[in-house]
Specification:
Blueprint lengths: L5 H9 L4 E5 L3 H13 L8 E4 L3 E4 L2 E3 L5 H10 L4 E5 L10 H13 L3 E7 L13 E4 L5 H14 L1 H9 L3 H9 L4 H13 L5 H19 L3 E2 L13 H14 L1 H6 L6 E6 L5 H11 L4 E5 H4 L7 H15 L2 E6 L7 H7 L1 H16 L4 E7 L7 H4 L6 E5 L4 H14 L9 H7 L5 H17 L6 H9 L4 H4 L1 H11 L4 E2 L7
Parallel strand pairs: 1-6, 1-7, 2-5, 5-6, 9-12, 9-13, 10-11, 11-12, 13-14
Antiparallel strand pairs: 2-3, 3-4, 8-10
Helix pairs in contact: 1-2, 3-4, 5-6, 5-7, 5-8, 7-9, 8-9, 14-16, 15-16, 18-19, 18-20, 20-21
């Protein structure tokens, strides 16, 4: 169950469930939910909270004899009900300990009106206990909770109240900006706003987004991409540009930016260096959304647990930052038909987790996946409905090459007058966009080294010495193009459907 709240927990307790395991990455927030539920259980009072350093603590009183897990469980079994016991560290001990597992089973038999709740960051429940406990997932605060909390903060923080009074729509904007933050993160952000004496509502929104960036950096599993890409940085790919504009027209740019209406996602395949990554950045810029990048190599690296656990953490982080663009770079390196067949267990679970999340996600997360070898992806990923569209981005045509030359000349402050750009475009027939960019940079460098303006011969000299990727990897590129011909929409040129 996602987005666990006190009402849900209280309902399950009332139905007779006595043993829970809550997957959470925020102990404090979950403890608050448990305390709220405990207040609704007649006669329970505050919950007993157990840690491996303090043992049980109840309203400030410590029970030092319960520091070890087994005495703590004996204590919980012996207490008269009704009572609620929250174990914060028990999951570190129960994996290979048959005594703890047996004690927990005894608790369920003898619980009566008592409830035992274990919390942890990973869904690592010993197999013998799965039939005895209910696994829950602690989600993020709902929109109604965020709005109510902001209203309460207005009563305590005069500057926030003043800013909201000056702008009647500010509360709604803050609720959108705060989606994905825990309540303490919201209070911390407002506290920073209060201390810096900011009176502009947009500054509070900016502080919320900075907090989200810090969350990404702390969790480490994904990268926040600083981004200033614009649509005029892209040459050619008119079909992709049209797709982007039609989505903006259909959903409304303001709705997309606020996360109230969001397309599902797009998969862009093609030759390396043709602008796949740049287009993803343009999407985030145009839609005024933060861009976070997931590297599938990190998912399989083991730093953040098993691959499926790492992927779940990545998805939770994306939902925490929502509305946002989630960029899955080189998706085939982590979700491939070859890996699925070769690795079996973890690869199939990663695939299952990805497909389930794509199908069921409710958070406004736009998934932009890029792939160099889309033929490696399992058919389940490519099924219609997973993504809004699948595009193939090939080598730029002559007109697109001219645009790309002009774009990069402008970036390098190269005067295009006196340079035959159509000639350069024809000579660069087999070059990708990235290779054209490098041609312009190299020509500009040679002129800079000679302390003179850039001339046409500088470009011609660099072009003569450039061996394009399309030549060195011609067979692989032909295979990619053949695969994509009837399976993907071309990013530029005439539409086939």
């Amino acid at each position: 169950m996602e987005n666990l709240n006190a009402q849900d927990l209280l309902r399950m307790i009332g139905a007779g469930t006595s043993l829970f395991y809550v997957v959470t990455d925020n102990e404090r927030y979950t403890e608050g939910i448990v305390a709220q539920a405990a207040a609704g259980v007649k006669g329970a009072g505050s919950p007993y909270v157990w840690t491996c350093t303090e043992g049980f603590v109840l309203e400030g009183a410590s029970f030092k004899e319960t520091v070890e897990p087994l005495p703590a469980l004996d204590f919980a079994i012996a207490q008269p009900g009704p009572a609620i016991f929250l174990f914060k560290d028990l999951h570190f001990f129960w994996g290979n300990n048959p005594f703890i597992i047996r004690k927990l089973k005894e608790f369920t038999v003898r619980a009566g009106s008592k409830v035992l709740i274990v919390i942890g960051e990973e869904e690592a429940v010993p197999e013998p206990l799965r039939e005895d406990l209910v696994v829950l997932y602690q989600g993020l605060p709902a929109i109604a909770d965020i709005k109510a909390y902001l209203e309460s903060l207005k009563g305590r923080i005069p500057l926030l109240a003043q800013a909201c009074a000056a702008d009647p729509e500010l509360v709604g904007e803050l609720v959108v900006a705060a989606q994905g933050l825990y309540l303490e993160d919201i209070e911390r952000s407002i506290g920073a706003f209060n201390q810096s004496q900011l009176s502009n509502g947009s500054e509070i929104v900016r502080v919320f987004f900075e907090t989200k960036q810090q969350i990404i950096r702390k969790r480490g599993i994904m990268e926040f991409v600083a981004n200033d890409a614009a649509l005029d940085h892209l040459g050619g790919i008119e079909n992709l540009k049209k797709w982007l504009e039609r989505r903006e027209t259909a959903f409304g740019l303001d709705n997309i930016s606020a996360g109230t209406k969001m397309p599902k996602g797009v998969l862009i395949m093609g030759i390396s260096g043709c602008g796949k990554s740049l287009f993803v950045k343009v999407i985030a810029t145009r839609w005024r959304l933060p861009l976070i990048r997931l590297d599938m190599a990190i998912v399989y690296g083991g730093t953040f647990g098993s691959p499926e656990t790492s992927l779940r953490k990545a998805f939770r982080t994306a939902e925490a930052i929502a509305p946002c663009v989630l960029w899955i770079d080189e998706i085939e390196s982590g979700i491939s038909s070859q890996g699925f067949k070769a690795e079996g267990g973890s690869a199939s679970r990663v695939l299952g987790s990805f497909l389930t999340w794509m199908q069921e996600k409710n958070a406004p997360v736009f998934v932009a996946a890029t792939a160099n070898a889309i033929e490696m992806l399992p058919a389940e990923v490519l099924r219609k409905g997973r993504f809004d569209e699948i595009f193939y981005m090939g080598l730029p045509d002559e007109k697109a090459r001219e645009e790309i030359f002009r774009i990069h000349m402008k970036k390098q402050n190269v005067d295009p007058s006196g340079i035959d750009i159509p000639l350069l475009s024809r000579l660069a027939k087999s070059l990708s966009g990235a290779e054209i960019e490098q041609v312009v940079k190299s020509a500009a460098f040679e002129a800079l080294a000679d302390k003179r303006p850039v001339v046409e011969e500088d470009f011609l000299a660099v072009l003569r010495g450039t061996v394009p990727l399309s030549v060195t990897m011609s067979e692989q590129i032909k295979n990619i193009e053949a695969w994509a011909f009837k399976r993907a929409v071309p990013a530029s040129g005439e539409l086939r459907r």
